[in-house]
Amino acid sequence: MKPLIGITPTLGKDHKLYQVSSDNVAAIVQAGGVPVLLPYVTDRHDMKQLIQTIDGLCMTGGPDIDPTLYGEEPHQKLGRIIPERDAFELELLRLYLETEKPFLGICRGSQILNVAAGGSLYQDIYAQIGSSVLQHGQKAPHGHGSHFVYVEKDSLLYRCTGVEKFKVNSRHHQANKKIAPSFQASGRASDGVIEAIESKDHPFVLGLQWHPENMLAEGDERSINIYQAFIQQAGQA
Ligand code: MN
Fold this sequence. Notes:
Blueprint: E1 4-8, E2 10-11, E3 18-19, H1 22-30, E4 34-37, H2 44-53, E5 56-59, H3 83-96, E6 103-106, H4 108-116, E7 121-122, H5 125-128, E8 147-151, H6 156-161, E9 165-168, E10 175-176, E11 183-188, E12 194-199, E13 205-208, H7 212-216, H8 221-236
The structure holds manganese (II) ion.
């Protein structure tokens, strides 16, 4: 049996249609997992049953997170939010982090991970950090690596990739700010923006601010390393 990997979709602008990029699904398949999409159930027992069923969990990109969930009010530059997605992913994550099963958070998935564990976000890096920030909303094609990430050597991200610096794509205007207790920032851009976080208490709980699923489609070695390590860990869960 291949590891079963839950993937959380987003909701379209009408808040009725579940959507997920096919690259998220293809990445799990390419790395040797069986993907399954998880709709937003609200019952905690249903969530626990989903968690028992899957071997790994991947939370995907999407719009912004309600800032009141991390103790702030909306900045002028806050974008669209999806309250039902915030509620589902936060509760699912809190229950999931009680297990040892692996987690991969992508972009918004990295941010919701940090919020679930007690951290906070920049609601808009350009307005709140200032003119020193790099371009994190690249105009290049989605799979193109546009800025570098500098990796902490004593980290899961380093163990996955084996390199201290590599290029990533970038499509975000928010970023993790205060890192949750018992988490560490394991990758940063040259402007200091946090690009990767991970739990110090779990074997494999990793949040990436970029989109490896888009780069893997183009054969990017680091993205392949990360997905394979994730699926391998799920196989042991
Ligand atoms: Mn970036």
